[in-house]
Design goal:
The chain is of the alpha+beta class and 389 residues long. Helix content is 35%, strand content 23%. The longest helix has 19 residues. The C terminus is likely disordered.
């Protein structure tokens, strides 16, 4: 089997047909991939256009890997990988993770996002195992040669033979609980996504530790919901790893398949990561008497022509003593190369006039294109922000 060709591009960039043909020798798409590409474009994850001269690929805010039947596309963020790992860590409260340079110095052209997510997940699972995986009592029925728990008399009455065994029902302390099951499922999903041998070995070690005592189930939202429903104070220390698991599920779009080999995408929306990063940044940088609400709706409603009644939902609401004092929105766009769009300005204007507190100023936050230097700041988080509110 020949190695699948890989097309590399950064976020928010476009690769013309002549470049793709010259660099990679690719000038057409397989018909098997059309449904996948249509769905990716519908979700605004990537745009792949077909012309008589070849194909054009334009990336959006999504970064990661898309596997097609004959080639794959790897989209990398403009932020350096060590900073991206720290950004994800900061955004999701993984502040105790210690990044070793040799571990984060992974091959940028081999998936990057999947490698970083695997590294973060390995670190959290190792911490859980070191602390001790949680167990719960589970009811179990079994035919035994001795009495354990309670005898199931209705089954005993139906026995056709007079053997020396008893149907018993008892409580067993087990590691086979949803929290551990979803960790195993996530590790098995991640190992398919990484190419770095050292990461594969670490994931395999963790899979082997869990496999003998934990059920094998596919990673899914149904399993995630079960974990959230059954979680209790005894598994509260799983919160971070469950949060990362949900992120992995969101990145693994299981509905996107192509061809008989079920090639899939593994994509992270940098726009959502940027929003989450800013939320944590605001929490750490604003005054303690200011409460920050993330993606909460304004009290006012509006009526659209086609889809009924809605509430406006800015990215951030700043409140003092339960009174709204400022509104902010985040846009992950390349503003160094183009001006703020009229649509963004219109959205901010609507936020300003549609609230009941007469907010006169609405803030817009977007990433800067200035070069980040490790010497200037060893932390991904910039100095605390001081909003004029």
């Amino acid at each position: 089997m020949t190695k699948r060709k890989t097309i590399y591009l950064d976020e928010w960039t476009k690769v013309k047909p002549y470049e793709i043909k010259r660099r990679y020798g690719i000038d057409k798409l397989s018909n098997k991939d059309l449904d996948l590409i249509i769905e990716l474009e519908r979700q605004n994850k990537i745009n792949i256009r077909r012309y008589s001269t070849g194909i054009e690929i334009e990336s959006t805010s999504y970064v990661g890997i898309i596997k097609l039947s004959e080639f794959q596309i790897i989209i990398t963020p403009k932020i350096p990988k060590i900073q991206l790992a720290r950004m994800i860590s900061f955004s999701f409260g993984l502040n105790n993770i210690k990044y070793l340079e040799e571990e984060t110095n992974i091959t940028a052209k081999e998936g990057l996002i999947s490698e970083i997510m695997a590294l973060l997940y390995i670190k959290e699972v190792e911490k859980l195992i070191l602390k001790g995986l949680s167990q719960r009592y589970r009811e179990k029925e079994e035919v035994l040669s001795f009495c354990r728990g309670t005898i199931v008399f209705n089954k005993l009455a139906r026995k056709s033979s007079l053997g020396l065994t008893l149907p018993c029902r008892y409580q067993e302390l087990t590691l086979d609980i949803p929290e551990n099951i979803i960790i195993l499922a996530s590790l098995k999903e991640l190992i398919k996504r990484v190419n770095t041998l050292s990461l594969k070995r670490k994931i395999n070690i963790l899979i082997e530790k869990l496999s003998l005592k934990v059920s094998h189930e596919p990673l899914s939202r149904i399993l995630l919901n079960k974990v959230k429903q059954e979680g209790d104070r005894l598994t509260s220390h799983y919160a971070t790893v469950i949060q990362l698991t949900e992120m992995i599920i969101n990145m693994s779009d299981f509905s996107l398949t192509s061809g008989i080999n079920k090639y899939t995408s593994f994509l992270l929306d940098m726009n959502l990561l940027f929003e989450r990063f800013l939320y944590q940044y605001f929490i750490k940088g604003t005054d303690s008497n200011i409460n920050i609400e993330y993606q909460s709706s304004l009290n006012n409603r509006y009526i659209s022509k086609n889809s009924g009644e809605h509430r406006l939902m800015p990215d951030y609401l700043f409140c003092r003593d339960k009174e709204l004092i400022a509104i902010a929105d985040a846009k992950y766009k390349d503003y160094d190369n183009k001006s703020i769009s009229s649509a963004d300005l219109y959205q901010l204007t609507v936020y300003g006039i549609a609230n009941q507190q007469n907010i006169s100023t609405v803030y817009l936050f977007y990433p800067s294109g200035e070069e980040y230097t490790e010497k200037e700041n060893k932390d991904i988080c910039p100095p605390p922000i001081r909003l004029d509110i």
